[in-house]
Specification:
The structure holds two protein chains of two kinds. Chain A is an all-alpha fold. Chain A is built from 21 helices and two strands. Chain B has four helices and no strands. The chains are: A mainly alpha, B mainly alpha.
């Protein structure tokens, strides 16, 4: 047996290695550092994210392969890795004050964020079912703990336990599906699976079809597609708000990346069938997410259902497939990252001294109490609703344009109708902020200023507007990133 | 197509179920039943039982159990490496040292956080 590994192998996973190594350094720094300075830990975390991002950008366009073809650093994975890094960087900026005030374990919090990010990056860059699974587990285990970081809070504990139990259940489905696919095709490499499935006798094997179904169920849980979404509102509501911001954009995008890898690289011969299944899932996910979000009085819960609905929009693009559809997934994932973390950022900033302001009533007259934050929230809500000149619009436009081009007329119509429904609950915040007077119970004065939090919100708002007005740059990168995927299939 | 290969496994399962079931059934049908209070007590190595089996355990038992598991797995990984030490050479040595360093970091963390304190 030959175990020699070359430098290329390690270069391929260099960003992941940086994050894992720095995660441990952050942990040690917290243990032995002077006086538990949270700000330093946050800076150290940001620094490692920047280093990983730099490593990613230098590798762009090289399509490195490592560890005998199980891991790759192609443009698809790098585009998604940059999205994950922005999610985590925004989350770290948003966490600085929240973590301190709520007394969450400092070193553990930041190092778990780094480990989770490394897991997401591994998911996006694996060409092998086992590596995808390992990445998913690194991510999941870290996020279970992150949900329960508020140890004295019963809701946070409930959230962690629920997420853990249902997550473990979903993992079981996923692993079962992978095992069945391995049983049918005799390999765990995605590209070899696709090759094996082109043979008639493998293609008609029911074991392979059961495998595909179970993998869809497993990822359905992880992405929170209806009808596998039951855990989402409770987990998102109970988890610390910073963790919710992270969970609703990062892991979701990572699961989409891994799902696309499996479906497009591994199960491409079955495309006709899985796209029909996903068609139905996309329709019910969009519809249920939007309709239930209408009735929520808690903004955090509303955003949880809205994230389900947005997963439905992204799924439309996966169904459409091809360079255009998959490029739209990459584009939308970044746009959603900015608008979603931004909206959560405003919620985090208004959470003062342990009291969180999460209901619509709390935001009465907020637009006049704090004009800058009001405008930021306004931008994020417009973008989530998909109003032109925002990143949300550019993303939805590409999804539905690719759907029409491929002849998915009904899917487009249903998606558009859903988009119209969603305007009601997004603009409800805007109406409350600007058209209702501040009550006794609502926020009376602007929240205490915090430079990292304002920076994060400003960055997110700038990102939303940039993607809305100049979408072509990121469209180019996202189309480039999926070109290899679609050319091979 | 490969079903014949699994036939012995199936036979073994059948044999195990059949034999086990048969003994249990025979014991139920043929065995005399004269229960007394002493006989019906749960058997705890001869000690008289006390209290209910369902009670809350202190969390430190779980901590110790987890730390034990981590280092147990570590030793399991060391065995195959030790057997193949010569073949794996310097590279294998380096890999294992990285692995051990990560685990030592875990030990330092657990120690510093007081997971090893019993009182």
């Amino acid at each position: 047996m030959n175990f020699s590994l070359s430098a290329t192998d390690f270069l391929t996973i260099l960003p992941e290695l940086i994050l894992c190594g720095m995660g441990m350094v952050v942990l040690l720094f917290d243990l032995f550092g002077s006086g538990r300075n949270t700000a330093n830990l946050a800076w150290l975390t940001l620094l490692s994210l920047l280093a990983a991002g730099y490593a990613d950008i230098t590798m762009m366009g090289q399509n490195l392969m490592g560890f005998s073809g199980t891991v790759t650093a192609d443009d698809f994975s790098i585009a998604f890795e940059l999205i994950f890094l922005s999610v985590t960087a925004l989350t770290v900026l948003l966490s600085t004050r929240y973590v301190h005030e709520r007394g969450m374990g400092y070193g553990e919090y930041y190092s778990l964020l780094l480990f989770a990010t490394a897991g997401m990056m591994l998911m996006a860059s694996s060409l092998d079912m086992l590596m995808i699974f390992i990445g998913l587990e690194i991510l999941s285990l870290s996020s279970y703990i992150l949900c329960g970081m508020l140890r004295r809070d019963a809701r946070s504990n409930e959230s962690a336990l629920k997420y853990f139990l249902l997550g473990a259940f979903a993992t079981g489905f996923l692993l079962y599906g992978m095992m069945l696919l391995y049983g049918a095709t005799g390999t765990i490499r995605l590209r070899e699976i696709a090759e094996a499935l082109r043979h008639e006798e493998v293609f008609v094997n029911p074991i392979a079809w059961m495998g595909m179904g179970m993998i869809l169920v497993g990822f359905g849980f992880k992405i929170a597609l209806v009808p596998f979404h039951m855990w989402t509102p409770d987990v998102y509501e109970g988890a610390p708000t910073t963790v919710t911001a992270f969970l609703s954009s990062g892991p979701k995008a990572a699961s989409f990346a891994a799902l696309i890898r499996i479906l497009v690289e591994g199960l491409s011969p079955m495309q006709e069938q899985w796209s029909q299944v996903l068609w139905v899932l996309a329709v019910i996910t969009m519809t249920l997410g939007n309709v239930v979000a209408l009735q929520q009085d808690n903004i955090k819960r509303m955003l949880a259902y809205s994230s389900i609905a947005h997963a439905g929009y992204i799924l439309v693009a996966v169904v459409v497939g091809g360079a255009e559809g998959l490029g739209a997934v990459v584009f939308y994932a970044l746009a959603y990252t900015f608008m979603n973390t931004g909206a959560f950022g405003v919620l985090i900033l208004t959470a003062d001294r342990g009291r969180e302001r999460l209901t619509f009533e709390d935001f009465r007259g907020f637009g006049f109490v704090s004009p800058a934050l009001g405008v930021a929230m306004f931008i994020f809500m417009l973008s989530l609703a998909g109003i032109p000149l925002t990143g949300g619009f550019a993303g939805k436009f590409q999804i539905f344009k690719s759907a029409i081009d491929q002849g998915y007329i009904w899917l487009t119509v249903i998606g558009m109708l859903n988009s119209v429904v969603s305007i009601y609950y997004y603009l409800r915040i805007v109406v409350v902020m600007y058209m209702q007077p501040a009550g006794d119970d609502s926020l009376q004065e602007p929240p205490r200023a915090s430079i990292p939090l304002y920076t994060a919100i400003a960055l997110a708002a700038a990102g939303v507007i940039y993607l809305g007005i100049f979408p072509s740059g990121w469209i180019g990168i996202s189309l480039q990133s999926v070109s290899l995927l679609t050319a091979g299939g | 197509m490969i079903a014949e290969q699994y036939l012995p496994v199936l036979m073994l399962i059948g044999l195990a179920l059949g034999l086990g079931g048969m003994f249990t059934l025979l014991a139920i049908m043929l065995g005399p039943k004269r229960p007394t209070d002493v006989k019906r007590m749960p058997f705890e190595s001869g000690m008289p039982t006390e209290g209910s089996g369902f009670r809350r355990y202190h969390v430190r038992f779980y901590l110790v159990a987890m730390i034990f598991l981590i280092f147990d797995v570590e030793v399991i990984f060391l065995y195959p490496w030790a057997v193949q030490f010569r073949n794996l050479g310097l590279f294998g040595f380096g890999e294992l040292m990285v692995f051990l360093a990560v685990l030592v970091l875990g030990l330092v963390y657990a120690w510093k956080k007081g997971a090893l304190e019993w009182e």
